[in-house]
Amino acid sequence: MNSILKFFIAFVLFSGTTVIVQAQSNATAQRQLSSVHRRVPPTRATRSIEVQIQQMREDLQSQIDELKVELAAKDEQIEALKTQTLNAQQTTAKASTNIHDIDSTLRQNTTKIDGLQATATDLREKDVIVSDSIQQVREDQKALQKSIDEPAALRYKGITITPGGFLAGESIWRQRAMNDDIYTSFNTTPYMNSGEAHTSEWVPSARATRLSTLFSGKAPFGTVSGFFEGDFLSAGITSNNLQSNSYTLRVRQAWGQATFGHLKFTGGQMWTLLTEDKKTIDPGSEWAPLIFDQNLHVGDTYLRQAGFRLQDSFTPKLTLAVALENSQYQFSASNASANFFFGNPGALGGLNNSSANYTNQVAPDVLVKGSYEPRFGHYEIGGVVRFFRDRYYPGATAAGAQNDTRVGGGFVANARFPIAPKVEMGLHVVAGDGTGHYGVSLLPDITVRPNGTLSLLRNAQGLFSLEYHPTKKLDIFGYAGSEYVQRTFYVSSDGTLVGYAPPNANNTGCNLEAVPTAGTGFAPGASPCLGATRDISQFSGGWVYRIYNGSAGILQYGVAYSYLTRDGWSGVGGAPKATNNFVYTSFRYYIP
């Protein structure tokens, strides 16, 4: 830019000088012309100016030449810059082309990399699947080997045989002696009139030992199964606790079952349908208190008796069942006349127990029950219809003898649900007319009128349970139960009060201890006391701890305490009351 400015200034100066020179030349020419005319010779001053002008021309020319050189150099630089710029543009174009090619290549590589990553992911997933499959195969192999070494069941022809049960070493201490084994007859706990009420007893026993076997197999219509369970809480004529301590095997359960889709039919000896179940209404799913008494707990409901049951699981949550079951009567009466009967002692030739009474039942008990299992708890409701019949003799003569049939029954309601983590509460109620013997205390179902016809007794029983399972090894439990039977009596034609617990019953000796009746050591005395039971209550608590629970079975130990009260209906002498305290211990080995 400076070179151009200098060139411009020099050009102006040069142009100005040229004009001046030309003017001076014109003036000189005119003077020369005048001189010619005048013939005047040039002066020294004119020659000096010409020299200066010449010198200026030369200087200007020199500057112009320098400027031309500089301009030529600048032109060369500009051309060089143009060349460089062109080269740079060409390079940039090539670079852009290369960048485009590289970008395209990168995109292709990215696509390939994504494909490779997807392939790698698929390979990793397949590797995980293969690893899982290998692990599953190994686990299956281990399970197969374990099933061979430690089979959960035995295979025989087309059925699976699953053994079960436990071996028991248990004991019970009673404050007041009852001469019972580990099975307590709650309704016979003695009043204070008995010498037994003033002595305690400690009874060790292994008779609760239980053996069971489940048989099951496939059939064209569904499945068939059978179950047998027995223990040793029965006595033969040679059974004793003196030397051999040997007792006979008794049948607890023995039933067969056929399953047709969601229908099940069961026949044989099983727990009654009125017993609370843990899930649905399936035989074998019954809930039982954790206490170690083999007569369970006051307030609970159970019978193990022959029957036939049909059930239908309408949904996974709702199951309904109907059953026909054995119908024996529990009878009690005071001042009854000999003008009726409804059974007889067992016929020894018919393989019944000749020392036990058997009812001539007119019809089976008819039971229905439904169970519902929402997400929270297990609930049941149902009922029973019972038929009682006797043959009575008006006027105590055979003339006019006839049969009398009475219909009774009641309802059952059960609820079992969690109230806190690992804490479960249960409520159980049965109430009705003629339902007493469904309870563990075997309270009476019926009594008799003066004319010999039967009368139903109102019964009620209930059980509250609370169970805490803090760990898989430990169970802590508490139960409170009660059973009740209503006083029912009638006045005969001669003024005698006939029936159950008449208010004029003799209770005068209920609190008076009597002397023994013989010198054998086995004949404690008892003063006169009717003491007809009004209600029995029991309160219990205890725990069970599993020392070992594994493939070799279960080894457990437990302790429980119970307080029992028996209240009698009032009579002459007042209302008797009996109490008892029980302490249980239990050591069991369960077959795996």
Protein model, in words:
Residues 1-23 form the signal peptide. This is FtsZ-binding cell division protein ZapB. Keywords: Cell cycle, Cell division, Coiled coil, Signal. Residues 50-84 form a coiled coil. It comes from Granulicella mallensis. This protein has 592 residues and is α+β, with helices and mostly antiparallel strands. The protein has helices at 2-38, 44-149, and strands at 154-156, 159-174, 201-205, 210-219, 222-234, 248-260, 263-271, 304-313, 318-325, 340-341, 343-345, 357-359, 365-372, 378-392, 402-420, 423-433, 446-448, 454-456, 458-468, 474-485, 488-491, 497-500, 533-550, 553-568, 577-590. The protein folds into 2 domains: 2-130; 150-239 and 247-388 and 404-590, Porin (Beta Barrel). Mean pLDDT is 88; it is low at 10-42. It is elongated, with a radius of gyration of 58 Å. Helix content is 24%, strand content 39%. α1 packs antiparallel against α2 (44-149). β6 and β7 (263-271) form a beta hairpin. It is built from 2 helices and 25 strands. The longest helix has 106 residues, at 44-149. The strands form 4 sheets. It has a 16-stranded antiparallel beta barrel with strand order 2-4-5-6-7-8-9-13-14-15-16-19-20-23-24-25.
